[in-house]
């Protein structure tokens, strides 16, 4: 290379690769820490090297593609799939197979895993491919293009990579999207103009003003337009494959677990005071509490695949908890606190794992089975005392609305908590009243009082409005959650296990066997600055109703206005624990419509950067169409004919074959004929432009005025001539001509020779 082309190539590489590196930075957060840094840096370096070598050695496009494939396989093992290589460097047959599969499957995994996704398997292939292919393509186009305009098109590659990074990114990327857009405009726009040869000193001010407007619109206008709307992220809009609405309410199995009293699982390493969580429910439909399935950010039903590490902001005691499943079945996986990593011995079960970081719950879509062994690295949060929470307000958390809740819950809650002030005092008052005024029973007839299973509206009405409150954790937790929600506080029901809850010793240092006697349900209420705190409204097991309690209660219940009887057709709780009330199936039409609008919304957001980049081109096309329409619809027939000839000249200018600016129409026609002589159909163009020039001169200089029909016929000839001129050039020049501004520039307004 001569010095000048070498300097130009260096500028191309610095601008393009620098911007590519900048737009790829948000992927570091997706993978976690600096996990993806070697793949990104190595991909950029290798892709740029292949592009430069191909340009210097003048390789064909096929040779460059083959070189990229070889580099992808040889270096991909060390950079993207080190677990399949020898000594972390030398690729093996497994490396080749995994890289080939990862090129197509990694993208879906990234969108369905919850960041940080880590580097397990071939997850790094996506970052490696974006860096390798993006840098090679951008630099190859810039260095090998024959014209400056073609070289400038390399600026589209970083824009495309930026869009891909946005799609794979998180809700709050480490690099603000506005800053990314500003860098793309400030760096790529001047470089593309310089590379295309259209950057002139007299245009510096205009270009600066345009860039200022674009940057100002992005920095100041975007927040005004978007308002408080949260940023749309594709991974948040994807419907997870696990839908909890396909399964019965976990809380309805409470009484069955108690009566079977089987050995469910063993747990070791359980921190002191920690509880084992099975399922968290925040949706009530008048029949059961269940896990929400609407996929919202705070819902208990959004279960996602997770990587090797799970990011958490929860603080507390860190521990390693080991589980061995015995007779527990279903899809709900026991967990503790907030998980930071899962280690499941069975690879098939590991692929079925879905986790919800909003609740700390987990499921195995293939089902929990006997003999399953797994470990969890957890953070067990400290539970602060009520005095420490003090007057902290309730957390602002969106929850599914209550449906079919009994009136007794609202009436009783208002009466019990009438003297409470802060949210935590309201929660404590409800917890204390239920635990002290109620009686415990798992369903055995005690002194003629029967404790039915279930927690539908009828059962909660009977519990709160009857002469005697009798039930177990299922009813008391369900009732308290409804009462807390009626008081305007966020609440949810948790089904889990508390080893030692039956009065026996709690967890020991070694493995602890968890049976049906340890099952428990409690309520969690969220407070700002403290998160979700547990409350236990269930009376102690020894607090059972006696005959004298029914005749003369020692502490009568507060006076509660009795709600009206339930309407006919209300759902009756099941007598048998195995019977699960089923709610109505979701409307498939509604789900399909919601999915359609989600897809449309994602497509609209992704299309915004494309529309912004295409906006100047659309403006040019619109201005030309408006000019053409004004010329053709002029009320003066002479002006219409003259405008038709001007349309021919402007088409020639946009096709880069202009006629002389000061020539007469006949002279211009001869120049156009000579200009198109070497093009296909040039003879036809020469004949048509000559006839149009003579007809225009006759209309302008003749004594009489041409008729409207003559002007219309003249324009029909103009359209045929313009079409012939356009067909005579290649498709690339036709596309450039449509968006060219050559015919829109202010030419000196001089009449052709011989005009008057």
From TrEMBL:
Annotated Pro residues bias: 561-571
Species lineage: Bacteria, Bacillati, Actinomycetota, Actinomycetes, Micrococcales
SMART domains xrefs: TGc
Organism superkingdom: Bacteria
Protein's name in the database: Transglutaminase
Organism of provenance: Cellulomonas xylanilytica
Region (Disordered): 533-591
Domain Transglutaminase-like residue range list: 465-539
Biased composition (Acidic residues): 574-590
Alphabetical UniProt keywords: Membrane, Transmembrane, Transmembrane helix
Tagged with keyword Nucleotide-binding: no
One Pfam family recorded for the sequence: Transglut_core
Membrane spanning stretches: 9-28, 34-54, 61-81, 123-143, 150-168, 174-192, 204-226, 602-623
